[in-house]
Specification:
The protein is an alpha+beta fold. It contains 18 helices and 4 strands. The two termini are 55 Å apart.
């Protein structure tokens, strides 16, 4: 008989029905199907249909086999369970559409990163990769991803051609998974977070490879699981904040532009959203979004970094004309000089020039 194969070349014959094992057992014991029928109280026809894979081994029949053959019912039930699972996966692989497989192209960047995390196997064929992604996404068909309310932020950005709903959803899931095992205080403590802002500012003076760990420690004390995560083409986001079921928070950031001044401004922008109560349930901060909520967060972030009145006086006095003047003003604000330079460049007061970049996400 020709072997039945699915679209990825797997043979259906390699999935062993428990009836084959039963046939081997009674053959080794030189027991006929008729004798097994007598010992189990079943019909000879029933025994034959099980052995030929046309009927499954039920829990009741497994118990009868335990009495008749001295092999525990759990053994037969496990064989049946494994067979059912393998058969289901075979059928799933066979029924995956080319359209769903096509989503893997959208997720190429994601897949490469997730392989580096050990979440996916590079050698896996396309249909099996779809099954793995379904498990990580928590969805039975990848094509339904844009329908999940969890990805509602995508719909708010539907006019932005740079947003891919599958990539955005994958990015959010990555944030959740990477923060899952971070030990944090039981609940978000907004007052403690506000009081730790001077400590957070001091972190920018640390070595670049120490920054993420120190920030994570500070945020964890405030009930926030913090992580800097990779960014992907198709998910033009700078931050993700989500309230967990127990009242804590997840805060993830990207280094999309990698400039140190933008990183720190963005970090305090996200902190402002938390302090302003903008983060109920889930909040995705897109680079391209504007409005009152974003303007308020920008204003607070600016104040956290540099006192507004002091900055205006500094500009009026032309203190920025010399690097030493910028450095002195930065020292007075307890920030690195690139924070002051970045703001001056953004406002067009000084020309754009090279500035520090981070590379450790």
């Amino acid at each position: 008989m020709a072997k039945e194969k699915n679209s990825v070349g797997l043979s259906r014959d390699y999935i062993i029905h428990p009836g084959e094992t039963l046939a081997e057992v009674i053959e080794d014991r030189e027991m006929t199907q008729r004798e097994l029928a007598v010992r189990t109280g079943m019909t000879e026809k029933h025994i034959s249909t099980v052995i030929h894979g046309h009927k499954n081994i039920s829990a009741a029949f497994a118990k009868k086999l335990e009495y008749a053959l001295g092999i525990e019912a759990s053994f037969w039930m496990n064989l049946q369970t494994n067979y059912d699972r393998e058969l289901l996966e075979f059928e799933e692989l066979n029924n995956i559409t080319e359209k769903e497989i096509g989503i893997l192209k959208n997720l190429k960047e994601v897949i490469d990163v997730w392989i580096s995390y050990g979440w996916l196997d590079r050698e896996t064929n396309a249909p099996a990769m779809v099954l793995d992604l379904r498990r990580i996404f928590g969805i039975s068909n990848l094509l339904d991803t844009p329908k999940i309310s969890y990805a509602a932020a995508y719909r708010a950005q539907s006019k932005n051609a740079n947003v891919d709903p599958y990539v955005l959803f994958a990015w959010q899931r990555m944030c959740e998974l990477l923060t899952k095992n971070i030990e944090i205080a039981d609940r978000i403590n907004v007052e403690k977070l506000k009081n730790r802002i001077p400590d957070i500012k001091r972190v920018m003076f640390m070595r670049a490879n120490q920054i993420q760990k120190k920030l994570s420690d500070i945020f964890s004390e405030c009930g926030i699981a913090f992580r800097i995560v990779p960014n992907f083409t198709g998910a033009p986001v700078q931050g993700f904040i989500k309230e967990t079921e127990d009242g804590a928070l997840i805060l993830c950031m990207t280094l999309r532009q990698k400039f140190a001044d933008i990183f720190w401004f963005t970090l305090f922008h996200e902190i402002a959203h938390i302090l302003n109560g903008d983060t109920k349930h889930e909040f995705i901060d897109f680079d391209s979004v504007s409005g009152d909520v974003e303007a308020k967060a920008d204003s607070m972030a600016g104040e956290f970094l540099i006192d507004e009145k002091a900055y205006r006086a500094f500009v009026i006095s032309n203190g920025y004309r010399r690097l030493s003047g910028i450095e002195r003003f930065a020292d007075s604000q307890n920030v690195k000089d690139y924070i002051v330079q970045g703001r001056l460049m953004k406002e067009g007061i000084i020309p754009w020039k090279a500035r520090p970049r981070y590379e450790w996400a």
